[in-house]
Design brief:
The chain is an alpha/beta fold. It has one domain: 3-Layer(aba) Sandwich (Rossmann fold), CATH 3.40.50. It is built from 7 helices and 5 strands; from the N terminus they run ααβαβααβαββα. Strand 1, helix 3 and strand 2 form a beta-alpha-beta unit. The longest helix has 24 residues.
Length: about 210
C-alpha cells in the first residue's frame, strides 16, 4: 500500500524570493505526489463504487452533501449521474442536498446550520439508500449529522475526507481518505474520486 504520510513541503512554505514559475511548478509537483499517494485508497474506492452500482441497480437512491468546495463536488457528482459523464447511461436517482436555498436557509434559521443536511436526509433517504458525505477535515458538523441521520435510517454511508478522517471515520461504511492535510490538494483528489465513481456507475449501466 502506498505510504500515507503527509506530503513533503508544500508551495506555501516556499521562500518569498521564489519566482512565479517556481511556485507554479511546486504546486503541480505537490499535486502529483498526493495523487500518486491516493493509489493507496484503491480498495475503499472500489468498494464504494461497487456499493453504488449495487444499490442503484436495485432501486436505491443516493444523496450527497458537503460545504463550499465539497458542495460543488456533491453537485458535480449528481450532475454526472442525472445527466452523463461520457455516455448516456440513463437518469439515475442521485440528489445533491446542497442546492435548495430555501430549505438550507429555513433549516439553518429554525434548527441551526448543523441540521441542514440531516433534515433533508430524514425527508428523502430510506433504508438501503446511500448517503455520501464530503469534508476535507472530516469534522464538518452538518456533514457529520447528515451521516448520523443516514445511519439511523439504516442507509449505507460513504465518506470522502482528508488524512485525519475526523468524526466521519466512525460513521462511514466506506471511508476514502486522501493522504494530505492541505485543503486544495484534498479537494483535487476528491474530484478525481468523484469522476472514478461516476465512471464505474456509468460503465455498469451502459454495459448492462
Amino acid at each position: 500500500m502506498t505510504d500515507m504520510r503527509t506530503e513533503p513541503t508544500s508551495p506555501s512554505s516556499a521562500t518569498a524570493s521564489a519566482s512565479p514559475g517556481e511556485v507554479i511548478r511546486d504546486h503541480i509537483e505537490e499535486s502529483i505526489r498526493v495523487k500518486q499517494a491516493l493509489l493507496g485508497m484503491t480498495e475503499p474506492i472500489e468498494r464504494a463504487a461497487a456499493l453504488l452500482v449495487e444499490r442503484l441497480k436495485n432501486g436505491g437512491r443516493v444523496v450527497i452533501f458537503g460545504n463550499g468546495g465539497s458542495a460543488a463536488d456533491s453537485q458535480h457528482f449528481a450532475a454526472e449521474m442525472v445527466g452523463r459523464l461520457e455516455v448516456d447511461h440513463g437518469s439515475l436517482p442521485v440528489l445533491a442536498l446542497t442546492t435548495d436555498t430555501s430549505i438550507l436557509s429555513a433549516v439553518a434559521n429554525d434548527f441551526g446550520y448543523d441540521q441542514v443536511f440531516a433534515r433533508q436526509v430524514n425527508a428523502f433517504v430510506r433504508a438501503g439508500d446511500v448517503a455520501i458525505g464530503i469534508s476535507t477535515s472530516g469534522g464538518s458538523r452538518n456533514v457529520v449529522e447528515g451521516l448520523r441521520a443516514a445511519r439511523a435510517l439504516q442507509a449505507h454511508t460513504i465518506g470522502m475526507v482528508g488524512e485525519k478522517g475526523g468524526l466521519m471515520a466512525e460513521l462511514c461504511d466506506h471511508l476514502i481518505r486522501v493522504p494530505s492535510s492541505r485543503t486544495m490538494r484534498i479537494q483535487e483528489c476528491h474530484l478525481t474520486v468523484v469522476h472514478i465513481l461516476c465512471h464505474a456507475v456509468e460503465r455498469a449501466f451502459v454495459d448492462a
